[in-house]
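[Solved] Which block belongs to which protein?

Original post:
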Amino acid sequence: MRRRPGYPRCLPVQSSSAEQTAYLLAHAREAAERFHALGAEVLNASYRNMPDELIAKMRERDVPLSLWTLNSEEVLRKFMAKDLFNITTRIPTAALRIREERLNT
């Protein structure tokens, strides 16, 4: 697993399909064990197939999530409320504003 200095070891999910999400939901324990065995520090996946149940299962197993690419304020608000490791977006100004709103409430 390649890593740039200063960046976490990231295990990318190559595609985000409904089948892959179903597999991860059904095999969350095994997936988390493999994640840790590989020395990964963050699971990087699309938000599109990341239901709340899977986020909860990965969190229970100490698997931090980095989701990509959230490009609407509605989606940003939904996932920023989940306190994920990282969110990738093409609307960083909106993300910063939403984060500020959350910090001030």
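(Second protein starts here: sequence line, then its structure tokens.)
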Amino acid sequence: MLNITNVNAKVYKLEALHDSARSFYGKAHVVETPGSVSLYSYDTLIAVINGGGINHMLNKGGFLSLTGAWDASQTTARHLNEFLLQHGGNKLGANARSRKKVKEAAANGEIEMI
């Protein structure tokens, strides 16, 4: 079970707004704090967006950090894609081409691997 101790955090289930699934059945959660928004899939931290205004939007100056678990499974990749689309970003896949793009983006300083 997800255990968040920050009293200023708002925790909610990730909704499937851009995915073909009706729901993610409580397997993905979003944690919002005043300075960031984070995605947890199966209680594992996957991604963090820092900055980007009040809604933490990537297309408004937000900066994306990914953990090594970002492509752990197809389901986690779907959670991440939904999270990115809801925050002004683009989809990533969990295939070799996507892994290469993420590595290149990290090398260029466009994203951070945490």
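Accepted answer:
You had them paired correctly. Confirming on the second one: The chain has a mean pLDDT of 90.
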